[in-house]
Amino acid sequence: MYTTVNEDGVLNNYATEPKMYYAEYPAIWEQRKYVIQAVFASLIVTTLILLGFSVS
């Protein structure tokens, strides 16, 4: 941790910055997993909206 002291004696603590890295493009199996998650999320949202309309 990096610490500085100003002229009034106040300590300022700074966290160490993590090493930066670039994200990699998702593999084909990861892309398929995201599509499946999107389908299920869409079904849940659609079901909730239709349920809300039917109740009201």
UniProtKB/TrEMBL annotation:
What's a Pfam family in this record?
A: Psb34
Span-the-membrane segments of this chain are 34-55
Domain of life, source organism: Bacteria
Record's keyword terms, sorted: Membrane, Transmembrane, Transmembrane helix
Checking InterPro entries in the record gives: Psb34-like
Keyword Membrane set for record: yes
Q: What is this protein called?
A: Ssl1498 family light-harvesting-like protein
Q: Which organism is it from?
A: Pelatocladus maniniholoensis HA4357-MV3
Taxonomic lineage is: Bacteria, Bacillati, Cyanobacteriota, Cyanophyceae, Nostocales
